[in-house]
Amino acid sequence: MPGVGTLLDMSGIVAGGMTALVFGKLFSDNIKDMLMNVCGISVFVIGITGVMQGMLSVSGGTVSVNGTIELLISLVVGSVIGELLGIEQRIERFGARMEKRIAGNKEGGVAEGFIRASLVVGIGAMAVMGPITEGLYGDHSVLIAKSVFDFVIIMMLTVPYGKGCLLASVPVGLIQGFLTFASCQAKAIMTDAALASLTTTGSILVLCLGINLIWDKKIRVANMLPVIIIGVVIALL
Questions:
Q1: Which of 39, 44, 119, 144 has its Cα between 20 and 30 A from that of 50?
Q2: What 8-state DSSP symbol labels residue 217?
Q3: Rounded to whole angstroms, how far apart are CA atoms 130 and 144?
Q4: Cα of 51 vs its chain's centroid, Å
């Protein structure tokens, strides 16, 4: 059922915040690091599984790789467009402006937690691909993984920034709910090739997010979001 994954994600955010409010002081830095590594490994596995499903096929006992050239073009063109647009930098500047405004407001404790948490869990590869795969295929796996990831993130953010972090569940629900609805409507006009391209390119973004989490890299995943659009356009053409 479309929307179930987003509801689970929202529940994970609230549960993470509540856990931090009650037990936050009991979690050591080592436990927090281990939880982040586990989340990173899970995201990495989901990403690479999606890429393999989209690119590998078996016929007559022979495994073949499909769409390599199209994928390469999508990655190059989409990433260049994203870098030129500076999507990730714009998001970071927006967050910095919001934090600066809140810093000047002595009563901004709840608002600060809300803004910080919303920017972390409401924008990103999983926040885009999760609702899309749910709307197109009824597959909740990405959003289920995101709910666990957001549980850990919100739990860690709530300790220093307070209960405002729990309110991040609201924009997450609105944004992901809209993307799920839009994906359900778009399914009727998407070809099999376009759906396969969307899954593969989106999975690569999720894979890159997993790499960032595990190895502490700085792949600008938000700047790669146009890759998904370019991949679908190439497949439709």
A1: 119
A2: -
A3: 9
A4: 16
Is the CB of residue 2 less than 8 Å from the CB of residue 181?
yes
How do the pLDDT tens digits run along the chain, 237 residues long? 778 889 999 999 999 999 988 887 777 778 878 888 888 888 888 888 888 877 777 677 676 677 788 889 999 999 999 999 998 888 888 777 776 776 565 555 677 778 778 877 887 778 888 898 898 888 888 899 899 889 988 988 888 778 888 888 998 999 899 999 988 888 878 788 888 888 888 889 888 888 888 887 788 888 888 998 898 889 888
- By residue range, what is the domain housing residue 149? 4-58+65-236
In sequence order, the β-bridge partners of residue 65 are 56
The string over 157-192, giving b where at least 16 C-beta atoms fall within 10 Å of a residue's C-beta and e elsewhere, is bbbebbebbbbbbebbbebbbebbeebbebeeebee
Dist CA 99 CA 112 (whole Å) = 7
Query: How many Cβ atoms from other residues are within 10 Å of residue 75's Cβ?
Result: 16
Residue 204 exposed, middle or buried by CB count within 10 Å (0-12, 13-18, 19+): buried
- Cβ(194)–Cβ(236) below 8 Å: yes
Q: At what angle do helices 109-121 and 169-186 cross, to 10 degrees?
A: 30
Count of domains observed in the chain: 1
CA distance 194 to 230: 10
